[in-house]
Amino acid sequence: MDSSLIQLTAETNANNSDKTLNQTSISIVFIILFVLTLFLVTKFLINFKRSVIKTKEVLANELVIPYVQGFNLKSGSFYNLLLTLLLNVAQIIALPIVLIKNLKNPNNVNGINNPYAIGFLAVLIANVILLLAFGISLLIIYLKEFKDAQYKHSTKEVEQELHSIKQTLNQNYANVVDMIKIDIKKNEQDNKLGTRVIAKFVYEYNKLLNQPIVNQYKTYLDQIFKINLFEETLESIERQQAQEQIKLEQEEFIRQKQQENQERELSNLEKEIRWMEKADNKALIIKETNQLEKNMSQKELNKRYEEYLETIRVQDPIYANVQKNSWLTYRDVDIEDLFYNPNSAINYTFDNGVTSLELQLKDFLKIYKEKLIQKFYSNK
Q1: What keywords were assigned to this record (predicted)?
Q2: What is the side-by-side strand order in the sheet with 345-349?
């Protein structure tokens, strides 16, 4: 009888210990999830505000509506927002269930004063506060950044404003290019990624005036922003590269001078040995290059070169501001692809193929931007 009672007590203690361990594990999981959600909310708010500010900065007076570049249902930033909200709401739904189970546990003699119940309730309240704070913060950013009279909020106001601007500027944009065509196959030979973006731009340009005026405007803003950001960033990159080139030339000049001084001190035999070493290294490089070309097709060589360029860009801090970033809404794949090879040739025509023209991508975008502005602000 005593041994059975001892055994039953031991089993009961073991079960209670397992349940305590389970509740401890669940508590830790919910705390980790809350910390992760807090991190995601903070990261999204910081980057969303940066995106709003960058949109206003790049578009300046062109912007007359509350608009955040790149933020839409298909963007990576929207999925980040969705993930953050789902994680937050999932905890708000799951925690009351866990809390009720805890309170119904027959071993819970303290009721709501049970440490685990208090912990679950605290995390639940924290999640609800976080959700409310997240929504209020987004609303504050929206109201603060778009409070000026420049920004029209209703569709009717926007349409009136755009029609008014078009009427004012119509006389300056009488000669509009209705259709632009590009030679996609030819352009893709030098720059497949950049050609994709240009082809998308041109397609939207040709269909621009077939849309309602507000949709026209959003298409126009999207393209103008990307072109402006491209020009601004390219100018900065080229300026940095020019400075680096000057620095490299100075270092090379100093190195050559040092080498010349060293060679003056070498004997004729030492000079001949050094020359032979350089010649052997050069011959080895030429031999390896020729062997590589024999063993690989042109397509494979091009693929390797593209991979090489991509690796260099990722490692180069100069290009850090143009790489895709799903948290910054405006840094999408189009921006990244435009910088793949800005010096590649773009073959295009403004007169349905009668005259074929060619410019570097960066120069084509300047001409294209002028045509886009003319077409949008024309009163056709």
Answers
A1: Coiled coil, Membrane, Transmembrane, Transmembrane helix
A2: 181-182, 345-349, 357-360
